[in-house]
Amino acid sequence: MASCWAGRGAGMEPPCSSLPIPALPCWAACPVFLIQVRLQTQTTYQGIIDCMVKTYRHESLLGFFKGMSFPIASIAVVNSVLFGVYSNTLLALTTTSHQERWAQPPSYTHVFIAGCTGGFVQAYCLAPFDLIKVRLQNQTEPRARPGSPPPRYRGPVHCAVSICREDGPWGLFRGAWALTLRDTPTLGIYFVTYEWLCRQSTPDRQNPGAATVLVAGGFAGIASWAVATPLDVIKSRMQMGGLKHRVYRGVLDCMVSSARQEGLGVFFRGLTINSARAFPVNAVTFLTYEYLLSSWG
Ligand SMILES: C[N+](C)(C)CCCC[C@H](N)C(=O)O
């Protein structure tokens, strides 16, 4: 069996099914994504509970799952790009193979550069999926209730086609620059936090155990979301530009006018809910990554 799981003592087995693991936390995380996006882009809610109650009253339980089928389908692709670019950049920078990664750990600078590179590349793969998710999640119309005005987008494909028709194919990349600014440095921080926590809690040159990987992955997610939230707010607002929001001239314009109108607190909207979601999602993500690396690497 894989090297990562080998040196950890008798009875330590890798998880039996690795690929389907992220599916469950992803679906469970849908309502959290929806609340986060609405809190960040709409001013009608007083907080998490208020947003949940209003969404439930107006759109029923199904309302919480709006806009997620498409991004969930894309998660495998986006994560493969991120982790693939990250580990290959690290390989190119350090010439240490995956198997020797814990015995000859790369420097934190190399981990940071590889994380930033992965973040930069994945941002452009993620951009169209994320745009569609944000647009659909911001539709507050109840589903198919006779007599009520129809929502602007009927589903992810209709949303993509409408954006292409209105703004051309590049319209699918609206907000992509803010997304790149959000993900490039914060994914560097993500991988550095993970590596640091693993190394702190594992004896020198040994592979981290499954519990260590889960905890380190969870905290890496929280740390990177804590830093990313201000730009996440800006990204979501720019993606909504032209719909419920005014069109911003750029990232800076969006930052300045949001802060002027709503105060500095605007940059931390969705932080609590993001962090609560980030722990389990990223714990499972890293466990799956380590398992796959050790069995294929
Ligand atoms: C860089 N940024 C903070 C945006 C995301 C970092 C973690 C990515 C993970 N797929 C998640 O959804 O939590």
Report on the architecture of this protein.
The protein is mostly helical and 297 residues long. The protein has helices at residues 3-6, 23-41, 48-59, 69-94, 108-137, 156-167, 176-200, 210-239, 251-262, 271-296. The protein contains ten helices and no strands. Mean pLDDT is 83; it is low at 1-24. N-trimethyllysine binds at residues 182-183, 186-187, 190, 221, 224-225, 228, 278, 281-282. N-trimethyllysine is lined by residues 182-183, 186-187, 190, 221, 224-225, 228, 278, 281-282.
Structural descriptors:
297 residues; mainly alpha; elongated; disordered N terminus
Short summary of the structure?
With 297 residues, the protein is an all-alpha fold. The protein has helices at residues 3-6, 23-41, 48-59, 69-94, 108-137, 156-167, 176-200, 210-239, 251-262, 271-296. The chain is 66% helix and 0% strand.
Output the structural class. Answer: mainly alpha
Question: What is the global morphology?
Answer: elongated
Order of helices and strands: HHHHHHHHHH
CA gyration radius, whole angstroms? 20 Å
Each distinct ligand = N-trimethyllysine
The count of helical stretches stands at 10
The strand count comes to 0
Membrane topology: Multi-pass membrane protein
Pfam families: Mito_carr
Subcellular location: Mitochondrion membrane
Keywords: Membrane, Mitochondrion, Repeat, Transmembrane, Transmembrane helix, Transport
